[in-house]
Amino acid sequence: MQTMGISQFKAHALKILDQVAKFQEGIIITKRGKPLAQIIPYRSSDMNPKPGKLANYLVFEKDIVSPLGEEMWDVCK
């Protein structure tokens, strides 16, 4: 992640924010060499999936009977 002094950020803030959005890479803003703030690109929340987008959250098993065995599967019915 790139670091930048606060005076440079202040002088070029809009251009820097455009670069953060374009390249999806954050920047650490420093003041007198110490980290002061971190600018990170906005990403939509994965905690609230859109309708039809649950495929990434589901696990599909090919065979659900074999791990238990035929006997245990019948008992679980």
For this structure, what is the CATH class?
Alpha Beta
CATH fold assignment: YefM-like fold
Strand neighbour order, sheet with most strands: 1-2-3
Outline, from the CA principal axes? rod-shaped
CATH superfamily: YefM-like domain
Q: Structural class, from helix and strand content?
A: alpha+beta
Give the percentage of residues in beta strands: 15-25%
Q: Segments where pLDDT lies below 50 for 5+ residues?
A: none
Mean of residue pLDDT values: 82
Which radius of gyration do the C-alpha atoms yield? 24 Å
In whole angstroms, the N-to-C terminal distance is 54 Å
Number of strands: 3
Tally the helices: what do you get? 3
Give helix and strand order, one letter per element, not per position.
EHHEEH
- Which architecture does the CATH hierarchy give at level 2? 3-Layer(aba) Sandwich
Helix content: 25-40%
Major beta-sheet overview = 3 strands, mixed
Q: How many domains in all?
A: 1
What does this structure look like?
This protein has 77 residues and is α+β, with helices and mostly antiparallel strands. It has a single domain, classed as YefM-like fold, CATH 3.40.1620.10. It has three helices and three strands, in the order E-H-H-E-E-H. It has a three-stranded mixed sheet. A hairpin with a 2-residue loop joins strand 2 (27-31) and strand 3 (34-39). The longest helix is centred in the first third of the chain and has 11 residues, at 13-23. It starts with a strand and ends with a helix.
